[in-house]
Amino acid sequence: MDNKEFIEKARKKIKDGLSVDDLIRKLIAFSDSLEKGENTIFEQLNDLYFLYYPEAADKLKERDRFINILRESCDRKSISQKMNIPAESMGFDLDDEEIQLLSLSINELSNISDLRKVVNDRLNSVIMKNYPNLNAVLGSEIAARIIYLAGSSYSLMLMPSSKIQVLGAEKAMFAARKKKATPKYGVIYNHELMLSLPDKLKGRMAKVIAAYTSLAVKTDVISKEDKSGKIMEKMLKDINKVRKGNGT
Amino acid sequence: MELKRVIDRVYWLLDRRRTLVTLSAYGGDSVYGEKIFNFNGKVYREWVPYRSKFAAAFYKGLNGIDIKDSYKVLYLGASSGTTVSHVSDIIGVNGQVYAVEIAEEMAVNLILLAEERKNIFPIVDDARKPENYSGSVPKCDLLYQDVAQRDQTDIFIKNADLFLKSGKIGVFAVKTRSIDVSVDPREVVKNEVKKLRAKFDVIREINLYPYQKDHSLLILRKK
Questions:
Q1: Mutant choice from B106, B113, B124 vs A, greatest count of A C-beta within 10 A
Q2: What is the ipTM of this complex?
Q3: What is the pLDDT of residues A137-165, one digit of tens each?
């Protein structure tokens, strides 16, 4: 007996089992590790730069600003002009070769940063194309992350909205089994609607967002139509109720 | 260096230390990075106990089991095919090992392995639902299960009912942590054995520490 038939069947099953969710999962993991690497390299470079020009490095503790200012050149003279600080420094005087090494490293860092932006753009367009409703409710970044956490859009669809509400807060959720209170929100916390809201209302808003996430993902997976206008109209009503403080 | 036979095609390679090896049935390629030994013109592959629970059992004193040339084996939880490749060595080119795995990324490796080793029959399916593949898998001479699920005992019994010939051996890797983390591991194994007693004789129970944590291997004979 030959195993060809089995291999054919298994291959087909693998192929059929793959979907755009797998792409989203891989892209988001890639983007995450790029960001992690970016931060590590930035910390080391900032440290190195601190040795050479502490006056400037002290003011460049923010990653994106650090990259923007030092991208072109990083010697004291040009930086002192750019940042309006004296070129006189108490740092260690580096050779030209070492300054070259610094600028090479900063360029690499800036490349990684650009690459991450490209990956995120790609992720956004994938979400927008495949999950228009979810994208309208959550924004592409959180939409991608919530699919990643759920495993697939299908399993996200099967979740009750109370579970969706705390996706990403698993640690607090398990702690709640012992004594603490249950968490009110997971990744939803980063939603733009939550940022401006007073703390007291955030729990309620999370509930509304989770409920509409559930609705949106069901629309995306089952009917595959773009009904985001209708959904958002309904959602805005509930959002206004929460804002007034007499919500759901 | 000398070879000491454990069972057919499985040997201890005695040097300064003992190393478990299987006589390769398909050439001299390393499957998962294991060492290859050439001895008297034959190729032997190291069977690493840290990677394979079956190998760990031999290191922990298992010295005989009913598996040999041309046997049909049903292997549940094949993963990327590490242990499967050695089982395929043991049963030889005339044997058949039906390897069931549900996780797609693992199954890809398994399929690629099956393309090289013609006695591996990959099945991408859920071992919980043996009826899905019962049409294509015949009665088997050995059932091996390593699935690390809470209901692993039920899965084992279900599959043994459908596929294992009576009087033949089932090898069952119990991962105690998957069944219940809060109970003492020895208790967990005891409870699982109780469930199995109705349909199997328990021949041996092997704790796989230190090669595998929280794992026991049960050797069972179907009544």
A1: B124
A2: 0.89
A3: 999 999 999 999 999 999 999 999 999 99
